Amino acid sequence: MREMRKYREIMHVYIKSQLAWRADVVFNMLFTVAKILFAWLLWGMVFRERNTVADFTFHGMLSYYIVSSFLSQLEMSGGISGEISARIRNGTFSNYMVMPVSIEGYFAAMEVGVVLFYLCFDLLAAMVWIFVFRIQFLFARSAVVLGCALLMTVLGLFFMVQLNYFLGILTLKYEEISTFLMIKDNLVSLVTGTIVPLALFPEGVVGVMRLLPFYYVTYLPSMLFTGRCAEEAVRGLVVLGLWCVLMQWAIVVTWRKYRVKYDGVGV
Hints:
- The chain is mostly helical.
- The protein has one domain.
- Helices cover 70% and strands 0% of the residues.
- It contains 11 helices and no strands.
- The protein has helices at residues 2-17, 22-46, 58-74, 78-90, 94-97, 103-132, 143-169, 178-191, 203-209, 219-225, 233-258.
């Protein structure tokens, strides 16, 4: 219980700290709105010529983009790798090493605080679009599917925290990790389905993507929330859970092996 109170306090600190960056809140909402506006303009032209695209109706496609934009804006762990890398390179990572909490737990609690703060604002931005454009929003009716989608969203956010933390501590071995970050960013942009729904890709390509964790971070939860791909819900939770376990193993092994290489310069 005492350990949990420490992590709750970290969450509270980061929730409060977001108030100092009010411009970020505005831009975050604008980015959510911009993604949905882009989808509305693009698919509005496409659906002028046809009624369905890959079994999506116009309102079904916009429902997908509203949910995927909302989920992608909640994923804000990308700064973790940059923060850790910079701290290791300038010798101030010791600040985290002397804290009475797990370093990984600290960044996970930080991410929870940030997500909770932006949750309401991103939800508000998505709801505005539903009412402004009178979108016939499609939503799953099964409580089981919705539960799986919610759990998968949480697991997906946790996996991204793990991934960015892992990439950050790779600086203990490789002084420059920009190449790893570039590969990660490109994979995330493509495989999470935030640009184009993966249902539009050939089935063979989608089959390969199902082996990657990014498929289950944004794309599949978005499909589940909008009442599609219900048959993949349980399998998706299992696959993503296994990836979380694998990533945690990689973090533990990497930290134990390379932390001795860190030469801090004080706290």
